[in-house]
Amino acid sequence: MTVIYTIGYQGLVPEQFIGMLHAYGVDLLIDVRSRPFSRMKGFTKKAVSTTLEEAGIGYRWAGQRLGGFSSISEDAIAGLAETARKHSVCLMCMEADPDKCHRKTEIARRLEHYDVSAHHIVT
Fold first, then answer.
1. Is residue 88 within 8 Å of residue 25, measured between CB atoms?
2. CATH number, position 110
3. What's the whole-model pTM score?
4. Which stretches within 4-99 are classed as H helix?
């Protein structure tokens, strides 16, 4: 079974965040925030992208397809499953508690149909 990781950056500083991604061997972070902005220093789309690039981790914003404020198509879930077979992927949103976030309640639940399980990184 393929594994995909998820993480919420709430309560983290960028250095902790990057350290956790490295600890799990993540090579591609997929940002599933519908609106990739943050009042938390270091977590705007541009800042995350730059920090990850410097750390050797790829970045994709997929909020338009996988965001919590839109309808997530089956094609988007299938595409994510395919990407997870090629990379060590981590989905990122703001919410630290996966039980309160669409990355678990919607995306991870639906990935099970594609034989992809989710491991939720929590602090």
1. yes
2. 3.90.190
3. 0.94
4. 14-23, 45-54, 63-66, 74-86
